[in-house]
Amino acid sequence: MTENSTPIATRERTVDGFVREFLRELNFGQGVDLSRASVNDQYLAMARTVRHYLMVRWLETLRRQGELQAKSVAYLSAEFLLGRQLDNALLASGLEDIVEEGLSSLGIDLATLRDAEVEPGLGNGGLGRLAACFIDSLATMNVPCIGYGIRYEYGIFQQTFVDGWQVEKPDDWLALGSPWEFPHPEAAVRVNFGGSVEQYQADDGVVRRRWVPGWSVLAVPYNYMVPGFENGRVNTLRLWSAQATHAFDLAIFNSGDYAEAVRAQTFAENITKVLYPEDSTPQGKELRLQQQYFFVAASLKNFIDEVLPEGFDLHNLPDRINFQLNDTHPVIAIPELMRILVDEKGWDWDDAWSVTSKCFAYTCHTLLPEALEVWPVDLLGRLLPRHLEIIYRINDAFLAELRQEYPDDELRVRRMSIIAEYPVRAVRMAYLATVAGTKVNGVAELHSQLLRDKVLNDFSEYYPDKFTNVTNGVTPRRFVRLANPALSGLITEAIGDGWVTDLDKLSGLEPLAEDAEFRRRFREIKLHNKHRIADVLATRDGTVVNPDTMFDVMVKRLHEYKRQTLKLLHIVSLYEQVTSGRLDIGSVTPRTFAFGAKAAPGYLLAKQIIGLINAVGRTINEDPALEGRLSVVFPANYNVTLAETLIPAADLSEQISLAGKEASGTGNMKFMLNGALTIGTDDGANVEIRRLVGDEHFFLFGLTEPEVEQLVDRGYHPSAYYETNASLRRALDLIASGAFSNGDRAVFEPIVSNLLHEDRFLALADFQAYIDAQARVDAAYADPEQWTRSAVLNVARGGFFSSDRSMRDYIDRIWHTPPVPPA
Ligand code: OAK
């Protein structure tokens, strides 16, 4: 390192050193002194102080990467659901104790500052949170990675309830300042849209085609630190924000039409204004395609022009980078790289394809056919005319290849075309990703199997080696170490602290399942965590929960396939039996049913289901006969922050999707690692959870995927279950009677009628099996020693679900990017 590139001095890692830095930030960064500082001032100063401590590591990581040019991962994702940053930064930098002591010497409570942080909700659910776990793991494992995504000005909406109905509020997460980001307006890049394609004669005499764009916007990068856990590495997450190329069109401005002059700016900045709140159901909106191309074009340009060294021979690109496509949202990167190589660099098509087809890999995160993105060619051609041409050419070459392989099977060839012809001509993004990608992976064993056998079956026959599985994982730093300090302490006391970066070490807890004292302490911690969430809910919503009950928790996006209605039918059925006198409340296991779920604003049935959960909850919670024994809580605005206190308090994890519909689930893993037992179907990663923990510590129920298929093929009639199952009938009748809607039968009629006549996700078919499994839950819970034994074993056998292991699998099966240990 040359002298003038030596980074700033390391901050003094002492309590006094921290206090000095903090006060300096308060004075010089916020312009206040301690006596006048608001909590937000203190939080911002604190966040900046902590990031200063990470700065040397970040600069050093960047410097070394520039020098080594090691093979890296560029994780392209339209969503990164990060959660709060402060705690994670403190943990990664090993500053927790110093900071706590330093702040307390100033009379400041660290917990208060923690609570001042507004989490960046730049994702909808599973897919975005997975991206955040993955970049955490890569940093911790010393793997060079850049995350590329979108800095939405408004993240996932804030959910409120008005009379039990979901009402969305904008998520103004930037309002009070965003101390974790580093804007770089000077490094903005131009992203083009629209216009047309023209033919021209290049200098070498060859006739070529090029894009003549119609309009453009600037993409401004905002960098975020992604600190590894106590390892000196800090990777980068780069989120792009849209800005107008000219803030004002002066000609228009001078002509006096001020509003028109500002319009162009507003139009451009709309691109990153808001996250689309649909989880796995694309709406096919033009602005959405603009978002996708915007961040992908900016990212490729940034990588090629700024991250690669000057003079880099792009023929070697596949040795230097893997662009991982997080579902189909960034797939437009494939024709974009082709365009750069062919149109801008003047390469032959075949050379360009040979490089492009080695740079990308695609992860699919769904099985729902309606979730697979397709872009009508009208829309795509209008927004990105050259890309559409390139896609057509990729498809032509692909179809020609297929016709050679399957000369007598034109039907198959058409099925596999990247271009769909019906109901409108459209580009199938998953097919494009499969054709161009080196690998295609599903996110749990069953999901990958179904991708191979069903959704992408023709492709897996044609490219048998392309398909692989990488089962999802979650970061143990955030979801155990930070979320559950009490359990983390107990684990560390028992097996040392190595588990935080090597989660397989949790297996060392197995023998302790037989240790009565360990079990007692384990139970005590669960109770402590129940009190913790009870306090949070009391303060936040005025909700009362009884910690001396079983916590039965279902938190996830509201979707029919996840079957919140099945859970509700269980609750209503219990209520109905108790209130009709057929069941003695004294014999019912006291339970707190907790829900957390946002519904896409346009998904009306999902919003109705939220209304029904709240209505049932209100009725049960107001019934004095059930007080302290049965209650339903549904805190509004479930997000990463709430997950971190709710999950560690759970006894029972509800993972009850219809088999074959949930790609993986990751909440299921977080619950397991925090000592909850799962009641679940044979779906997604539940399959692996059950295999690892063992049947006797898991409550399995419901149809299997092949059984679902058979039943649907035979013709599924939900009303037959209603007719033949008395408790199901009574529960549905009670809802239909208006018992939860002041006698108004119309309010929840759409839900009842949907279940009786359609029930796309077979809730009624699985009802009895679910009720029987819940009876097994009650029986097991009645024996606290046995229950705790199972809970301990869930933790001990959960090590596989670390996202560090997922990253190892991606590295071995897809990326081949060795870690770069610190110097
Ligand atoms: C979002 C948009 C389009 C397609 C899929 C999603 C999505 O969030 N899928 C979820 O991804 C998670 C991470 O892989 C899985 O655990 C969930 O099962 C899946 O629904």
UniProtKB/TrEMBL annotation:
Q: Which family does it belong to?
A: Belongs to the glycogen phosphorylase family.
Starting at the broadest rank, the lineage of the source organism is: Bacteria, Bacillati, Actinomycetota, Actinomycetes, Micrococcales
Q: Which Pfam families match?
A: Phosphorylase
User: Per the database entry, which stretches of residues form a coiled coil?
Assistant: none
- Could you tell me what this protein does? Phosphorylase is an important allosteric enzyme in carbohydrate metabolism. Enzymes from different sources differ in their regulatory mechanisms and in their natural substrates. However, all known phosphorylases share catalytic and structural properties. Allosteric enzyme that catalyzes the rate-limiting step in glycogen catabolism, the phosphorolytic cleavage of glycogen to produce glucose-1-phosphate, and plays a central role in maintaining cellular and organismal glucose homeostasis.
Q: Which protein is depicted?
A: Alpha-1,4 glucan phosphorylase
Q: Which reaction does it catalyse?
A: [(1->4)-alpha-D-glucosyl](n) + phosphate = [(1->4)-alpha-D-glucosyl](n-1) + alpha-D-glucose 1-phosphate
PANTHER family cross-referenced by the UniProt entry: GLYCOGEN PHOSPHORYLASE, GLYCOGEN PHOSPHORYLASE, LIVER FORM
Species this chain originates from: Cellulomonas edaphi
Q: Does the keyword Manganese apply?
A: no
Documented EC number(s)? 2.4.1.1
Which InterPro entries does the protein's record reference?
Glycg_phsphrylas, Glyco_trans_35, Pyridoxal_P_attach_site
Tell me yes or no: is S-adenosyl-L-methionine among this UniProt entry's keywords.
no
Needed cofactors: pyridoxal 5'-phosphate
The organism's place on the tree of life at top rank: Bacteria
The top EC class is transferase
UniProt keyword terms in alphabetical order = Carbohydrate metabolism, Glycosyltransferase, Pyridoxal phosphate, Transferase
Gene3D superfamilies documented for this protein: Glycogen Phosphorylase B
- A single GO molecular function term of this UniProt record: 1,4-alpha-oligoglucan phosphorylase activity
